[in-house]
Specification:
This protein is an alpha/beta fold. It is 33% helix and 14% strand. The protein contains ten helices and seven strands. It has a four-stranded mixed beta sheet with strand order 1-4-3-5.
Length: 227
């Protein structure tokens, strides 16, 4: 098996012009920091990786695997036509919070509502990037255009700080067909921050996850259960 190491500075150099306009909407703090571009790697991976690479799984470091990651590759076969990215739902009401203004103006909306019927947003801890599909999707590439991003952030009154996760979440509200939703067991997030910050009444509707966990995600420094 072959291991290829990519230089972060080199990648950032290629990324920055593609994601620069996006960063001001989805980065912590104000302004556009060159180094922040790396938090948008997944968004433009299809433009940076060599053409012969057709599929990539991108994962956070704070994960614990309970099954062979190879099984996750089978999920690529379950993508519907037009889907380019596989991603699990966010398991806290973070986007219920972020979209508060849009939700207030659109009381019937599914935006920010809990599963199974709502659109709780995504968590980018485990990502399946079908680079081939991303390259070929006219819609997806249009959504990377600064004017389109700007228009969507205005429509949804969106200001985030979680990088690629915010971009995918916002795009998913508008174009859910671009995403294959992974089962929560592939990205079982453990962070409960929002339970103690104003959302205890609805928290469990987001946090609930049935089935045998395949990947634990100890986000916000949450300890992962021992075997």
């Amino acid at each position: 098996s072959q291991v290829i190491v990519h230089d972060v500075n080199e990648l950032t150099e290629k990324l920055f012009p593609i994601v620069e306009a996006m960063q001001k909407h989805f980065s912590a703090g104000s302004g556009t920091y060159y180094s922040d571009s790396i938090f948008f790697l997944s968004v433009a991976m299809h433009r940076i990786m060599p053409k012969e690479i057709t599929q990539i799984i991108q994962v956070d470091l704070d994960l614990k695997y309970k099954t062979n990651i190879r099984d996750l590759f089978d999920e690529f076969d379950n993508f519907s036509e037009g889907a380019v990215i596989g991603i699990a739902r966010e398991m806290q009401p973070v986007y219920r919070h972020t979209f508060w203004q849009y939700r207030r103006e659109n009381p019937q909306t599914k935006v920010g509502e809990p599963p199974p019927d709502g659109l709780p947003g995504f968590n980018s801890g485990v990502l399946l990037l079908n680079l081939e599909a991303m390259r070929q999707s006219k819609l997806y590439n249009q959504l990377l255009e600064p004017t389109v991003v700007q228009k969507l952030t205005e429509k949804y009154h969106f200001k985030g700080h979680l990088g690629d996760q915010d971009f995918f979440t916002m795009v998913g509200m508008e174009h859910p067909e671009l995403f294959h939703v992974l089962d929560c067991t592939w990205n079982r997030q453990l962070c409960t921050w929002w339970r103690d910050h104003g959302y205890s009444d609805v928290f469990d509707q987001y946090f609930h996850c049935e089935g045998e966990v395949k990947i634990y995600h100890g986000n916000c420094n949450t300890p992962i259960p021992e075997d």
